[in-house]
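We were asked to recover a plausible sequence for a given structure. The inputs and outputs are reproduced exactly as logged, with field labels preserved.

PROBLEM: sequence recovery
POSITIONS: 159
GIVEN STRUCTURE:
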């Protein structure tokens, strides 16, 4: 989880490959209306996000019901979003990709994506960092991708 441009997809792909499991990319679950809205520089509302989060939650539940591991790359900016995503999931580890607005804005400016850099502030305004009760693994994304990956593997006891 984390704001747009924090590296969820990049690290998610690498972790999924390492674990030989599927990456569920949150962006793939957005409706055309949500993508159009964000592309126009308008932030999503909770009402916009609810069907999106419900679809992702359903996909996670399907994987869990068949005992299949998966990695999910999703902003999950609010606690209630994370609660919805992980409801009825017995084994899950929340990974929060934390970074500063300036470095993330630079990343966003260097990529092509429907989420324009102009919406980054709205992401930070919405962000509720995980509380201690969520037991999230926090990754400092000021490190390089490889350093972040090594940290994840170590903390998840995969090395």
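RECOVERED SEQUENCE:
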């Amino acid at each position: 989880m984390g704001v747009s441009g924090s590296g969820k997809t990049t690290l998610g792909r690498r972790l999924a490959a390492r674990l030989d499991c599927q990456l569920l990319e949150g962006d793939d679950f957005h409706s055309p209306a949500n993508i159009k809205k964000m592309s126009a520089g308008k932030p999503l509302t909770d009402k916009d996000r609810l069907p999106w989060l419900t679809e992702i939650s359903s996909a996670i539940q399907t994987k869990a019901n068949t005992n299949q591991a998966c990695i999910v790359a999703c902003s999950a900016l609010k606690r209630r979003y994370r609660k919805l995503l992980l409801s009825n999931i017995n084994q899950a580890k929340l990974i929060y990709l934390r970074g500063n607005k300036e470095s993330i804005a630079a990343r966003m400016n260097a990529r092509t994506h429907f989420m324009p850099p102009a919406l980054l502030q709205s992401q930070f305004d919405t962000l509720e960092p995980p509380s201690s009760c969520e037991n999230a693994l926090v990754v400092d994304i000021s490190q390089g991708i490889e350093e972040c990956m090594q940290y994840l593997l170590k903390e998840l006891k995969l090395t």
